[in-house]
Amino acid sequence: METMTTSSATLPITSINASTKNDPPWRQMPMTRRGIFAAVAYMACAVLLLMFNKAALSTYNFPCANIITLLQMVCSTFVLYTLRSWNIITFGTDSRTDLSLKGFVPFKTVLQTLPLSFTYLLYMVVGMASIRGVNVPMYTTLRRTTVFFTLIVEYIIAGHKHSVPVLGSVGLILLGAFIAGARDFSFDLQGYSIVILSNVTTAVYLATIARLGKTTGLSSFGLMWCNGLICGPALMLWAFASGDFDKAMHFPFLYSADFQVVVLFSCILAFCLNYTIFLNTTVNSPLTQTMCGNIKDIGTVLFGWLWFGGLPFDWLNVVGQFLGFLGSGLYAYGKLNGKL
After folding, report:
1. Which of 193, 67, 211 lies closest to 142, judged by CA?
2. Is the pTM for the entire model greater than 0.70?
3. How far apart are CA 300 and CA 44, in angstroms?
């Protein structure tokens, strides 16, 4: 995807050139340096954020995942407003989406992002809930099946069909996930079901990003800004209605410095992760974004075993993990060389 930069934009943004608006949503081409940067940055942020979220929800047993999601969204919106006020970033690619005086997105354009905001809420709320009930190694194993749902959603939304090598890579990932999870003695049907639901919402969310990134003319930051404007108030109302605010105020570690540091880093990393998700999905593709999620799992599994424990060492699990990483690696190799 072509990019456009201005003298006031010093951070990488995603923009839509007029010559590419009518192209298929996901064109098969080699990854550029920009695409590689987006993929690597996403993987680093994702591993770190998962660790901090897991620490807050499991180690400290914080009962309100929605409150953490809300804090992350408020932090993200504040950072975006500050960066835009200082003319470090832009929210759009032309005068229709990035007003010259204040840089706010027109209300009509905000309304066009309602589907993205809805899928984002599902993605965040279900994603946070899915971390709690499953140990980290099994969480990452189940999350690898997201690639299967991404293939289906891409086909439904855009009629996009993938090549045999891509389907083969996906098959290896699914086989590895089933093998790795075959001996999980901490089997939890409810926990597993929430993770699978999280996979579905992730696939829909990524496909929606790719679609709206081309049709609205908004940059990655612009899409994030609209998300915050719509989802922030909605999530706040939900937190009040569900009693999460009251639970949070009575949380025994609320004023613990250690817990506050964990939540702070969670908010910072959430902003970085959201940006890299938008950037990677629009610069590369929803499927590439999902594959990056599989590749970074090697770091997630390692840190998860070291910090939180979970599955005991088992060769069957090792073989399953290897097959999953092999499938992701084959896709990455083909994508980097423009063979997929």
Report:
1. 193
2. no
3. 10
Radius of gyration of the chain (CA): 20
What 3-state class would DSSP assign to 339?
coil
Please name the residue that has the structure tokens 């599955």. 311
Half-sphere exposure of 223 (CA within 13 A, CB side): 33
Q: Which amino acid makes up residue 19?
A: S
For 295, the 3-state DSSP assignment is helix
CB neighbours of residue 22 within 10 Å: 7
Question: Measured in whole angstroms, how far is the alpha carbon of residue 111 from the centre of its chain?
Answer: 22
Neighbours of 12 (CB within 10 A): 19
Q: Say how far apart CA 28 and CA 33 lie, in whole Å.
A: 16
CA distances from 77 to 25, 34, 338 (A): 27, 24, 36
Cα 259 to chain centroid, rounded: 24
Task: Print pLDDT tens along the chain (340 aa).
Answer: 333 333 333 444 444 444 444 444 444 556 678 888 888 888 888 888 888 888 888 888 898 888 998 999 899 999 988 888 888 888 876 554 444 335 567 778 888 889 888 888 887 778 767 766 677 667 767 777 788 888 888 788 777 777 788 888 888 888 887 787 666 655 677 778 888 888 888 888 888 887 887 777 788 888 888 888 888 898 899 888 888 899 999 999 989 999 999 999 999 999 998 888 888 887 877 777 777 776 776 666 666 666 555 555 667 777 887 887 788 777 777 666 655 5
Q: Are 195 and 142 in contact (CB under 8 A)?
A: yes
CB burial of 198-218 (b: ≥16 within 10 Å; e: otherwise) equals: bbbbbbbbbbbbbbbbbebbb
